[in-house]
Amino acid sequence: MPTIQDVARDAGVSTATVSRVFSAPDLVLEGTRQKVMEAVARLGYEPNFAAKSLRTLRTEKILVTVPDISNPFFSRVIRGVEEAAHAAGYSVLLGDTRHQEEREEQYATMLRRKEADGLIFLGHRLPDTLVDMVAAMGPRTPIVNGCEFAPDLGVASAHIDNTAAAQEVMDHLYGLGHVRVGVITGPLASPLSADRLAGVRAAAERHGQTAALQVITGDFSIESGLHQAAALLEGENRPTAIFCFSDEMAMGALEAIRRAGLICPRDVSLVGFDDIRFAEYLAPQLTTVSQPMDAIGHEVVRLLLDILKGRATTLQQVTLPHRLVVRASTAPPPR
């Protein structure tokens, strides 16, 4: 097997220059870099990244854990993570925790064993395995949370203002004339569900409609939206509008509306949350809160790289912009 010395000799440069071509190519002149890469191609040289990891104590890998890999929202965030990590020269290790604490702990152990340089977790729990690391390292802890903002976790994060977004949804529905509004939340152990519900209640109180508000708990899935919306529609005071805390639940709720012999939005208006790519192709097109999913993925990687490169001296918690997208699924209530 050709060695780094063989490449250096063939290209007429030092072994240090060859090493820099792979570790910090921006520091090498374009002509020199091209000579080295031509020598690499001629000799069939492959860098020994395992040996490099032992020397630098860096793996150039980022571990990302996601609560539900089948959720289209998370797939967009992961795509953003992958794009930003690849551009920075990092590989991504992906773990689907399926909302299970045991799986979260297993992946956290990989970080403790230094099998990855940093962790991005898209759920709401900080594994117990990492609590002491956060306490000891503070803002320098190579852990970033995406999507779910909980300041007491003590880690860097990127998210939207879920409370403000939910208030905008409710203001939109009340502005159309709706009084009886049904809300299907996500699991209330989730900070984003709690924040969205706080926004719902604040708007209801501001509009004087707290008594007419109907709240039921879901789990973000299509099936949950179907079953919980059916329960709302069977009640005596059937809501004229339903706000779901995810687009997937809104898709299930739309089917529940159809099964009840009703038409959206003539009989029941419907709002989702996330703006996954299916939202605008439903019939009717779904009114929803658009989250910057790709941008969240890019931002969590930026935050982690700042930590890994020693640029983070304070805890960074970034709030990204959201947008209420009004489509055909909302209209004034029936007379």
Automatic annotation (TrEMBL):
The keyword Secreted does not apply. It comes from the Bacteria. InterPro entries: HTH_LacI, LacI/GalR-like_sensor, Lambda_DNA-bd_dom_sf, Peripla_BP_I. Keywords: DNA-binding, Transcription, Transcription regulation. One of its GO terms (molecular function) is DNA-binding transcription factor activity. Pfam families: LacI, Peripla_BP_3. Residues 2-56 form the HTH lacI-type domain. Signal peptide: none annotated. PANTHER family: HTH-TYPE TRANSCRIPTIONAL REGULATOR GALS, LACI-RELATED TRANSCRIPTIONAL REPRESSOR. This is LacI family repressor for deo operon, udp, cdd, tsx, nupC, and nupG.
